[in-house]
């Protein structure tokens, strides 16, 4: 993993579109905000190729939150996500943070991954929209 730079913006949008099924315009808006805020965006690199991303936000209460964790579809199921999560957990725990994760609860494959590295569900929330 490496810290994202502004040069990673387009790849970050691509990952959001492909891994989360987002519309490109929505992904661009979201990534613009992400690059401007105070969270750490990390790019996941395998064999010198960017294959995913995640954000880590450290809270004053001693919590580290993982957001936007995503791997390009063609790299999923190869153990990359598991290795990344284990590394993040190890690093954040060593720094004195408890580690938490925000995740889409309808993604059974992802939920299985998170549970396999030790995450437990503590709260779920559904989001709804009202069509105009």
TrEMBL record:
Source superkingdom: Bacteria
CDD domains xref list: NAT_SF (cd04301)
UniProt cross-references to Pfam families, sorted A to Z: Acetyltransf_1
Residues in N-acetyltransferase domain copies: 1-132
Signal peptide: none
Protein name: Ribosomal protein S18 acetylase RimI-like enzyme
Protein source organism: Paenibacillus lactis
Lineage: Bacteria, Bacillati, Bacillota, Bacilli, Bacillales
